[in-house]
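Q: Give me a backbone?
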Amino acid sequence: MKPIQPCQPVQAVLALPGSKSYTHRSLVAASLASGESLLSNALKAEDTELTAQALAKLGAGIDWQGNTIRVRGVGGQWRPVAEPIYLGNSGTSMRFLTALVALGQGAYCLTGSDRLCQRPLNDLLPALEQLGVQVTSERGDGCPPVTIQGGLKGGRARISGAVSSQYVSALLFIGPLAPEGVEIEITDELVSRPYVDLTLAVLEDFGISYYREGYRFFRVPGGQPYQPADYAIEADASSASYFWAAAAITGGRVTIANLSGDSCQGDAAFPGVLEQMGCTVEGSGDGLTVQGGPLTGITADLAAMPDLVPTLAVAAAFAQGETVITGVAHLRHKESDRLAAVATELQKMGIAARETADGLIIPGGAPRGAVIDTYQDHRLAMSFAVAGLKVPGIIINDPGCVAKSFPDFWEYFEKLRQGGL
């Protein structure tokens, strides 16, 4: 349990660890390349280490030195792995590896924690079958554990984008090394679109070409080798959201020094959401700054930045009027059922939040202290901690769950209170 002490309006400049999304993706691309890549400002957290460990089992050389990773790629040729590959509670690792191991030879079994084995792969598995891959959900429920038989051919796959953009990213990664290439047709609306843009940016940076028609169709020609690269990873915009929200809630000012508004990360647009609520946003060569102000409720479609629903929900609790969050029905399949969890914990704080079919309704007011359960969900712990900067009596259960994406969160949280750099 971690009690959070209220403070004066925060005033801080922070340089944050690297993006989790970029770290996962650059690890994958570097491992598929021939030769050595150097990834700088990489995020060392539970999820990214699980991806790195899996890639190492498949034959990549992974040398992690602080926030720098030297990766010796395998040239697209995975080695066989007899034992199950354990991926903890990392949905990104599971979704990416489910497709990636199809590049190998023989059978690969992927498994994880109890919660991960409840998270569906229903759309990805049939898409892989359409590309000539033999896949088996061991319990027959479309969830892990899964067994993938290597020997990808390629071709055309039709896939829903309604649950996770990571399915599309996973297919994009294997496209260059599929003998026939890969074509991906999205059959409905694609959620979390900026994450696909981010994947495509990484592919391009590692020498891969592609063709796209918006978010409906993608083609990646086969026979393309990944090229090794020296790759600098920018700050994690999802992690930055908690510090920007702290500025909003306390009426303070926070600058994230190593992130700009033109980032490919969808979550870098979060200051614009806070601006709609009444904050002032400044972007410059010195970083991206949020100055807090009186907050008012808004209606926000967060389909492009679903991980920030808990952050916005906590900020909305301090606003005047009602905030309506839409476009995020798929949050029920995250580390927790995030819609139910956020509503429940806000209710403990005296805020009558309620779920809708695709989001939340949060009537702002005067939140009170509460013991916050985190459901083993890192984003719940970090977002509700911010409330404790304004309201006495906030206590975070299982504070260590932040290690999934931001192991040093509590140290940075203290830096926030002390003025940052």
User: Anything to note?
Assistant: The mean pLDDT is 93. The chain has two domains: 2-16+235-418, 20-232. The domain at 20-232 is CATH 3.65.10.10 (UDP-n-acetylglucosamine1-carboxyvinyl-transferase; Chain). The first strand starts at residue 2 and ends at 3.
